Amino acid sequence: MTNEELKKQFDLNDPYQIAKYMKAAQKSTPVKAYLRGYLRDKDLEGFNYFGQPSACIVLGDADAVAGLIESKAKSLTFCKVECEARNSAIPLLDLTEVDARIEPGTFIREGAHIHKNAVIMMGAVINIGAVVGEGTMIDMNAVLGARAQVGKNCHVGAGTVIAGVLEPPSKEPVKIGDNVVLGANAVVLEGVTVGEGAVIAAGSVVTKDVAPGVVVAGSPAKVVKEKDNQTEEKTELMDDLRG
User: Fold this and answer.
1) Which fold has domain 95-227?
2) Burial class (CB within 10 angstroms; exposed 0-12, middle 13-18, buried 19+) of 135
3) Dihedral, CA atoms, 132, 137, 143, 148, nearest 10 degrees?
4) Residue 102 phi/psi, 5° resolution?
5) Residue of 185, 162, 166, 183 lying closest to 174 (CA atoms)
6) Close Cβ partners of 212 (under 8 Å, ≥ 6 residues apart)
7) Pairing, β 30-37 against β 76-83
8) CA-closest candidate to residue 45, choices 26, 64, 62
9) If you ran DSSP here, which 8-state letter would residue 174 be given?
10) Where are the domains of the chain?
11) Is the Cβ–Cβ distance between 150 and 176 less than 8 Å?
12) Which site among 16, 27, 81, 142 is 20 to 30 Å from 164 CA-CA?
């Protein structure tokens, strides 16, 4: 059974199911080998390769490619192997079916949910089971941990960390309501709920639930005021960046 078929048997929003899926999934160590030397078509049977056998790029599992290289060592004049993961259970999300703007250099794991017109900027990391609502922007180098939930039309500032909850599995995930703005480098800890329209100041560490429509700041974050017209102007989102 392939991992794609296996995945359909599990609810990737449930921490226990996620853990079972990760345990059952076939682990892989994909590598890319750059080879040059006296190689023939039959030497590369069973491998995906690009170029001519005498100078090619071979894609495959680490053990299989290592076996090829070892068996043909005397025929090779050049060999370089690149490895990006080791015993990986969950690949990155297939972005071709995602109706959102996703910039290069993001890391979005399979099992994450990216909704329409969301914007994911360079360097963002989004783990399995996380949800990014419609029209929400995840700025550069922000991190959404496993099962983190971000509502619609939010802005998650650069470098912000929304804690994930996979272990311990009994802990509630972070829930960010609609129209919330999180400043750069804020941290929201496990189990916290942030109400609709709230504003989290840059650098804040949020350890407790935040009521709707308030502004919090500090470490630990505390309410500093109700959201007002000045705050609305400073936290205005731009529709032209979405859609």
Assistant:
1) UDP N-Acetylglucosamine Acyltransferase; domain 1 (2.160.10)
2) buried
3) -20
4) -125, 115
5) 162
6) 177, 195, 196, 197, 198
7) antiparallel
8) 64
9) P
10) 30-83, 95-227
11) yes
12) 27
Q: Is the peptide bond before 212 cis (omega within 30 degrees of 0)?
A: no
Largest CA distance in the chain: 74
pLDDT at position 243, please?
67
Q: What is the mean pLDDT of residues 186-212?
A: 96
Helix (H) or strand (E) holding 105: none
Which DSSP state fits 88? B
pLDDT of residue 69: 96
- Mean per-residue pLDDT for 128-142? 96
How far is the CA of 27 from the CAs of 21, 53, 60, 89, 126, in angstroms? 11, 28, 13, 5, 20
The whole-number pLDDT of residue 160 equals 98
Residue among 64, 38, 61, 35 nearest 50 (CA)? 35
Kindly state which CATH superfamily the domain 30-83 is placed in.
Answer: Malonyl-CoA ACP transacylase, ACP-binding (3.30.70.250)
> What is the pLDDT averaged over residues 17-32?
89
Closest CA to 163 of 119, 194, 135, 137: 194
Q: 22-26, 183-187, 211-215, 217-221: which has the minimum mean pLDDT?
A: 22-26
Residue with tokens 């099992």: 111
CB neighbourhood size of 55 (10 A): 13
Closest CA to 36 of 21, 25, 19, 51: 51
